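SEVERITY: medium
COMPONENT: batch folding queue
REPORTER: lab tech (J.R.)

DESCRIPTION
The queue accepted two submissions in a row. Attaching both inputs and their returned structure tokens so the on-call engineer can compare them side by side.

ATTACHMENT 1
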Amino acid sequence: MASLTLPPAPPNPRQDAIDLQKAFKGFGCDSTTVINILTHRDSVQRGLIQQEYRAMYHEELSHRISSELNGNHKKAMLLWILDPAGRDATVLREALSVDTMDLRAATDIICSRTPSQLQIMKQTYYARFGTYLEHDIGHHTSGDHQKLLLAYVGIPRYEGPEVDPTIVTHDAKDLYKAGEKRLGTDEKTFIRVFTERSWAHLASVSSAYHHMYDRKLEKVIKSETSGNFEFALLAILRCAENPAKYFAKLLRKAMKGLGTDDKTLIRVVVTRTEIDMQYIKAEYFKKYKKPLAEAIHSETSGNYRTFLLSLVGPGH
């Protein structure tokens, strides 16, 4: 469930473009108007506003935002106005570039997306950057982490809710043999099960494993694997079981302790607002006894804070 609130009647994209231009034109930018317009329009409407803006003012809205806003507010807004696949592709490209390398961010985006989202994102990645996502993954990752990511973006998985209990039991046994039962770990088996099976299937494997061996599959991954490979397996497993809980945890980590990991905070809020932010807020409140909006409020300030809070919406 999305947390985005939209006006009762669909606004006119041309009028929005005119109002945005007015907000940019004065002395200093009228950020409140910019935020009010753009955080209450869905992905399609934001696309139309950009078309109108380009047609009327012969300039990309993104360029104008770039010159008018700054800091985290600018970063968040530039990501927000992109379409979902374009946004994921942009975050990935940055995470897989030498100067801004962030393999955790790349892993998070890849492992938390559905097969159909990954399909569109790969096409967008190639269209935007003239290179295949697989090529950039191959270039910047290594070992089992690389094998897992390449298989995950390459294999079209089933997305429905049905599972075959016989295969579930079989997979649970295979994972037991590949991990706890032997010395060392047979990573190939983990990669196979985690990249070829649907989320519904993996969630069933997880509970079957717990039932059969009295140990949580998550604990097994933590003791049998490490580094980015472990991070990727956990991301896949947690998204299979409860994506909202996975993102609530990411947000909590981004805001815990000294300083804020704004990159993660922006990425999660902006990419989940139109998908499942209401569920993420519920999970956050359940686990940390504090509304997500309150946490964001205490970690951010100014227009950046206003922007994020407009997306996350009130309540928990």
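ATTACHMENT 2
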Amino acid sequence: MGKSKVLIVGGTGYIGRRIVRASLAHGHETYIVQRPELGLQIEKLQILLSFKKLGAHLIQASFSDHGSLVDAVKQVDVVISAVSGVHFRSHSILLQLKLIEAIKEAGNVKRFLPSEFGLDPARMGHALEPGRVTFDDKMTVRKAIEEANIPYTYISANLFAGYFAGSLSQMGSFVPPRDKVHLFGDGNLKAVFMDEDNVATYTIKAIDDSRTLNKTLYLRPPENILSQRELIGIWEKLIGKELDKTYISAEEFLTTLKGLDYKLQVGIGHFYHIFYEGCLTDFEIGEEGEEASELYPEVNYIRMDEYLKIYV
């Protein structure tokens, strides 16, 4: 069997553009939706044109034009959605319901990967308001996929390093502090930090793999399972300096959270489950899932000591 033809929706976004590059690098005939709603966003247009130069095909389609989505889907074997689910950008998760209708009508897609790439929403039914909207919307999409009998793979990529490792998981910054650092609780609960290019690589490797069909692929490479305290220790070693540490109790965190803008509450509320509950590592992967680094040991994933060197 040849490599699948891949359609990527959201190919100019934070994770989407990395998935495009990974798809091309792994030899897949790669198609990217070019939405007319792009308007005057010239940076996104230039990203699309740069991919076209690399061999990707651009397909005009819109969520407001069902026929165009069906036509786009009919040209490929696999559809990967990377539409934004981040509230301080644009929360577009439920737009995928229109994409699902197109996939259902087209009838030819052998695998659909919806926009998840974070915490496993199936394990977040207890999440705090208002942040639970992210997980509720993703579960609405999952329900539609499964009711339509569309073959799927869900990607649980845990924490993007650009958001959580570079900042040492500090709120309000994406660069590591050099003097003072805040820890959530005692800082000892484990999380999983992923280089975004590795996320894209694992995603593309999964699309033609029968082992990931109708399963969740968890990205939990063992050397990137770290506590916040361990992550800070890596940074301290790199800069040869110990940081002053302030510990934030769960009560203090929740009090601060309530005073924030709604969009910030949605995103930062997830910190509570990650760093005070340890929701990323407090379970064993069962028969419903697979772990990426075990399936694809040939991927030399980026460890966080290597990742943080660029910030020194």
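NOTES FROM REPORTER
Residues 5-158+195-220+284-296 form a domain with the Rossmann fold fold (CATH 3.40.50.720).
No errors were logged for either attachment.
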